[in-house]
């Protein structure tokens, strides 16, 4: 312990270090990029995780929805390239208990669908809001995120 303290006392003061260190060779100034990732919910139990740096929203059903549905046996999704408006049907989920439509929580263009769900629909039960994501939408109006429910508001709506 004393060795660490002695070494620290011999260290150069902060003023001795250059103000804009360029050890990585990326230029004299460093740039900081900030990405805001927002997760919101619908009252129909869809969730969207929006990344403002890409403009992409990843759509899933909520864990609450998958638990109410029961064992999911089939997932049908709209094809990539399809333009959707907020509230449009973007697919359906069938379980041993019931079938349910999935609605777009935001407007935009479907960029990608989770192809794994075609062969492994039960992934929705195992990881509904993570590995069981449904599709990715390039939002045409990111301000629509503001009209969706926060985590607290969604939880309150499920409890009532």
From TrEMBL:
Modified residues (N6-lipoyllysine): 97
Keyword entries, A-Z: Lipoyl, Mitochondrion, Transit peptide
Principal location: mitochondrion
Keyword Cytoplasm among UniProt keywords: no
Essential cofactor(s): (R)-lipoate
Entry GO terms, CC: glycine cleavage complex; mitochondrion
Every Lipoyl-binding domain range: 56-138
Record field: transmembrane: none
Gene Ontology biological-process annotations: glycine decarboxylation via glycine cleavage system; protein lipoylation
InterPro entries xrefs: 2-oxoA_DH_lipoyl-BS (IPR003016), Biotin_lipoyl (IPR000089), GCV_H (IPR002930), GCV_H/Fam206 (IPR033753), GCV_H_sub (IPR017453), Single_hybrid_motif (IPR011053)
Location within or outside the cell: Mitochondrion
SUPFAM superfamilies reported for this sequence: Single hybrid motif (SSF51230)
Keyword Mitochondrion: yes
Cofactor binding description: Binds 1 lipoyl cofactor covalently.
Leader peptide range in chain numbering: none
Functional description taken from the UniProt entry: The H protein shuttles the methylamine group of glycine from the P protein to the T protein.
Oligomeric form and interacting partners: The glycine cleavage system is composed of four proteins: P, T, L and H.
Family to which the UniProt record says this protein belongs: Belongs to the GcvH family.
Descriptive protein name: Glycine cleavage system H protein
Taxonomic source organism: Tricholomella constricta
